[in-house]
Amino acid sequence: MSYAIETDTPFKGIFDSQLSVDQVDSDVMQFGNEALFDTDNQYKITNKGPATFKLDKKAKTVTITVKKGVKWLLRNWNIHMK
């Protein structure tokens, strides 16, 4: 696949959504930034995305299950597990 953007500003190449403030970078990043959860037209989480979401209000827990075959890159994340 080839992709081109015409712009009159320099390409910064900051592909981290927390650091990027440039629309050009955001336009290029959109192809690799898939949401973990899919939502319907009322923005309610569905189980159609890469992960499923189960809320147990009584136990005050959320269970997130990543579907088989889903891959992602963990970079610059602080993960704390109990």
Description:
It is elongated and about 55 Å long. It has one helix at 23-29; strands spanning 38-39, 45-46, 51-56, 61-66. It is mainly beta. Mean pLDDT is 78; it is low at 77-82. The protein contains one helix and four strands, in the order αββββ. It folds into two domains: 1-33, no CATH class; 35-82, no CATH class. The strands form two sheets. It has a two-stranded antiparallel ribbon. The protein starts with 22 loop residues before the first helix and ends in a 16-residue tail after the last strand.
Q: Tell me the helix content.
A: under 10%
- What does the average pLDDT come to? 78
- What is the tally of helical segments? 1
How much of the sequence lies in strands comes to 15-25%
The spatial strand order of the largest sheet comes to 1-2
Q: Which spans have pLDDT < 50 for at least 5 consecutive residues?
A: 77-82
CA-to-CA gap between the ends?
42 Å
Largest sheet: 2 strands, antiparallel
The overall number of domains is 2
Rg for CA atoms = 17 Å
Principal-axis shape: elongated
Structural class, from secondary structure content? mainly beta
Tally of strands: 4
Element order, helices and strands? HEEEE
Tell me briefly what this model is:
By secondary structure, the chain is mainly beta. The protein folds into two domains: 1-33, no CATH class; 35-82, no CATH class.
